[in-house]
Amino acid sequence: MMSGEFIAFMGIALVAVIGGVLLLNLSNVMHMMVALVFTFVSIAGIYVLLSAEFVAAVQILIYAGAITIIMLFGIMLTRHEDTSEAPGSSWRKFAVFLGVLGFAAVLYFGIYNLDLPQMENTLHEKNTMQIGEALYSKFVIPFELTSVLLLVALIGSIMLAKKDDEKEGDKE
Amino acid sequence: MSGVPASAFLSLALILFCIGLYGALTKRNTVIVLVSIELMLNAVNINLVTFSKYGMMPNITGQVFALFAMSVAAAEAAVGLAILFALYRNKKSVNIDEMDAMKN
Amino acid sequence: MENAWIIPLFPLLSFLFLLLFGKRFKESSAYVGMLLTFASLVYSLLVLFERFSSPTYKQEGVWLTIGDVQLTAGFEVNQLNALMLVIVSLVSFLVHTYSKGYMHGEERFPVFYAYLGLFTFAMLGLVLSPNLLQTYFFWELVGVGSFLLIGFYFYKDEAKAAAKKAFIMTRIGDVGLLIGMILLFWQVGSFEYDAIFAAVAAGEVAQGMITLTAILIFIGAVGKSGQFPLHTWLPDAMEGPTPVSALIHAATMVAAGVYLVAALFPLFTASDVALTTIAVIGAITAIFAASIGLVQTDIKRVLAYSTVSQLGYMMLALGSAGYVAGVFHLMTHAFFKALLFLAAGSVIHAVHTQNIEEMGGLWKKLRVTGPLFLIGTLAISGVPLFSGFFSKDEILIAAWEGGHPILFLLAVIAAFFTAFYMFRLFFMVFTGKSRSEMKNVHESPSLMTLPMIVLAVLAVVSGYVNTPWFGTFLGDWLVEGNEALGHGHVEGPAWIMIVATVVSLAGIYLSWLIYGKKSLSRNWLGAQTLYKVLYNKYYIDEFYSMTIVKVTKGFSHFLRYIDTYLVEGIVLGVTAFVQTLGRLGAKLQTGQVQTYSAVAFIGLAILMVIFALTGGYL
């Protein structure tokens, strides 16, 4: 039953996981970000498989585009040569690793026992239109609130970044 | 209509979430920690979209939720980076283990 | 009499008042103490006179209820208590007055008066107690008071040591008392004197148990009254101020032991063994202390040993079933011993030394003190017509009738010794050549001599309340309505009185030959070794320090090692553990959010794993 869909899923999932693992294991910060872009893009692919074309597009726009670029700015504007890990934190890494492993095992146990009935759905038909209708009818208030949130985040970011500038300017 | 079971998507989301979690808890560079958190948010979005399709009542709401989560994530990333810059100006470092102002 | 409980409160008030405001009053705080003790005295006298005509009054209230056992607290006015009240408050008042002159110029003057108040309060409370438990409280309080007063000159090492010694030695006795008390309570189920006596009389307590408890309680009295072998603290207690010595020796501390035996007399009479023990200990103490007194050169120490000896007499009397004789002697002794101590204090006040070898010829210089001292000396020596004569006579009769010829003989010899050393003291201090360095000797102020005069009068006349010639008023009154105490007066052969007179006169004559006329060599004791032995008090102290103290010290060293290495080790281990724990905890507080979240997440993961493995139910 190796349908084409399944093969596509396996390929995309493989790319996503490899990107994540590389994120953890690469030493250069820039390389990490590049690995992450692969993961974000493959997640967009996953969305397509899940009949969410609009979300996939937004994923690529926001994550692979905006957030990655912002993060790259963050790396570039700060001192990024220092990639060495702190000594003595290996026990913590190990402990966190064990914790994550246990967490994953427990959750996988739950997922494995999950048995969802296959329902007919029409998500793939005019997906973007459906989302638009939902956003502007049912979710109009959260939608407007989101715009406020983004405005606040914008102003907040500017203030945070700017305030210290003035202080330093005063000092100098 | 689909040959891919829901548990496969959920497992992928789990793996990505765990990777993000591990990175967030162990990486020294604050930017990478932020990025790891974005990865965790992405894993959650996969879950949302998966249940939007394979849930008990397939519905567009899951995808709308994923969109909201993305917008919030974007805002979070922006603010997080702004804080990072402010910290960097004071500490001249982005190493997370040097940010111990809570200790004193 | 219903308000007799107020008597001890006056000195307590004095104590508290002077403790709080003493600094402001300075030397006038003496008037506070004097006034309040005088109030006690007046009230005591009223109670005594009322007691003559009315029966024993007793009032109690429930203090504690434990299960079905009720502990009571209250007061009782029987004959003995009423008599003791008067003796204690009288002597205390006179000592208060005397101290005003004696302690003049002392920096801690108000403190001294405060302590006196506490001491008097304790003793008055003791004699009013209707049950053993209450008695024990005041008994210990008396111990505290004596500790404070003996160690009043705490900057002197000897005084410190003496205070500690007094406390520890009496404490040994107190343990005996406590054990005896608890045994009695176990047997009888009550601390009440009346209940105990009733149970004993009804034969509810086994004979062996009576003997045991009686002897244990007697051990308490031995400690407090300075009986052999726990007597050594009493002479050392002379390091305290002289008025304190008078108080301790005459009215309070040492009288407490005799009082206890007298108060529990029905218990003791129920056991022949216990009575004999008391008599033997008393006789041994009497002769033993008297022989030491023969050679001491410190005026106060001579008096101290004479006190020990006289207390031995009282114990002998009580042990020979001579209740009246013992209490009678307790009373007369209180007066003449207080007189002697106050007079000695006056002498010391005048010449600033306590060594009788350095005194002499003071008769002419101390016109008042000299005759007063002589009266005291005559009284204690048992010269006829003085109070000591009658009470000693009673004791000798009691000892003779008690059927212990050997003890009687010892008592007679002790009487001889007493007469001898008391007059040795008198002759050495008041007659002979006056020393050149004693130029500016002056008589004490009237504030000091007046109390002595009062006591001197009492030392003479107090004997007449109970004589074979003019009636035995005191004796009859004391035993009235209580057959357990024996007869008011025991008729003895007339020759006993003659023997007593002869013996005391012989002692005086011998003493005069040696120290007055000096026709006999002072080295009459001949054998230097004997002299040395006596001078060193039979090496009792040395013996104690060689044996008991050494063993105790060794044991305490052993315990100290246990303490240092075991107990302290455990304690240090605990602190080290806690500190390590704390350090680890502090290490966790790095201030790094990442670490915090890592720890929190690991905790969550562990919980989740446990949750999953146990199927959701812990």
UniProtKB/TrEMBL annotation, chain A:
Q: What class of enzyme is it?
A: translocase
Which reactions fall under this protein's catalytic activity?
A: a quinone + NADH + 5 H(+)(in) = a quinol + NAD(+) + 4 H(+)(out)
Q: Which GO terms describe its molecular function?
A: NADH dehydrogenase (ubiquinone) activity; quinone binding
Instruction: Write out the transmembrane intervals.
Output: 6-26, 33-50, 56-78, 90-111, 139-161
State a GO cellular component annotated for this protein. Answer: plasma membrane
The record, for InterPro entries, names: NADH_UbQ/plastoQ_OxRdtase_su6 (IPR001457), Nuo/plastoQ_OxRdtase_6_NuoJ (IPR042106)
Q: Where in or outside the cell?
A: Cell membrane
Lipid bilayer topology: Multi-pass membrane protein
Tell me where it mainly resides.
Answer: membrane
| Keyword entries, A-Z | Cell membrane, Membrane, NAD, Quinone, Transmembrane, Transmembrane helix
Task: Tell me which EC number(s) this protein carries.
Answer: 7.1.1.-
Q: What NCBIfam families does the database record attribute to this sequence?
A: PRK06638.2-3
Q: What does this protein do?
A: NDH-1 shuttles electrons from NADH, via FMN and iron-sulfur (Fe-S) centers, to quinones in the respiratory chain. Couples the redox reaction to proton translocation (for every two electrons transferred, four hydrogen ions are translocated across the cytoplasmic membrane), and thus conserves the redox energy in a proton gradient.
Concerning its family, UniProt says: Belongs to the complex I subunit 6 family.
Protein's UniProt name: NADH-quinone oxidoreductase subunit J
Automatic annotation (TrEMBL), chain B:
NCBIfam families to which the protein is assigned, alphabetical = PRK05715.1-2, PRK05715.1-3, PRK05715.1-4, PRK05715.1-5
| Protein family membership | Belongs to the complex I subunit 4L family.
Q: Name one GO molecular function term.
A: quinone binding
Upper classification of the source organism reads: Bacteria, Bacillati, Bacillota, Bacilli, Bacillales
Q: What is this protein called?
A: NADH-quinone oxidoreductase subunit K
Organism of derivation: Pseudoneobacillus rhizosphaerae
Keywords of the record: Cell membrane, Membrane, NAD, Quinone, Translocase, Transmembrane, Transmembrane helix, Transport
* Compartments in which it is found: Cell membrane; Membrane
InterPro entries reported for this sequence = NADH_UbQ_OxRdtase_chain4L/K (IPR001133), NUOK/Mnh_C1-like (IPR039428)
Gene Ontology biological-process entries: ATP synthesis coupled electron transport
TrEMBL record, chain C:
Q: How does it sit in the membrane?
A: Multi-pass membrane protein
Q: What does UniProt list as this organism's lineage?
A: Bacteria, Bacillati, Bacillota, Bacilli, Bacillales
Q: Which domain of life is it from?
A: Bacteria
| GO terms of molecular function | NADH dehydrogenase (ubiquinone) activity; NADH dehydrogenase activity
Supply the PANTHER family for this chain.
NADH-UBIQUINONE OXIDOREDUCTASE CHAIN 5
Ranges for the NADH:quinone oxidoreductase/Mrp antiporter transmembrane domain?
129-418
GO BP annotation list: ATP synthesis coupled electron transport; electron transport coupled proton transport
GO terms for CC? plasma membrane
Instruction: List localization entries.
Output: Cell membrane; Membrane
NADH-Ubiquinone oxidoreductase (complex I) chain 5 N-terminal domain: residues covered: 63-113
**Transmembrane segment boundaries:** 6-22, 29-49, 80-99, 111-130, 136-155, 167-189, 195-223, 244-268, 274-295, 302-324, 330-351, 372-391, 406-427, 447-465, 494-515, 558-578, 598-617
Chief subcellular location: membrane
- The protein depicted here goes by the name NADH-quinone oxidoreductase subunit L
Tell me the protein family, please.
Belongs to the CPA3 antiporters (TC 2.A.63) subunit A family.
Q: Which UniProt keywords apply?
A: Membrane, Transmembrane, Transmembrane helix
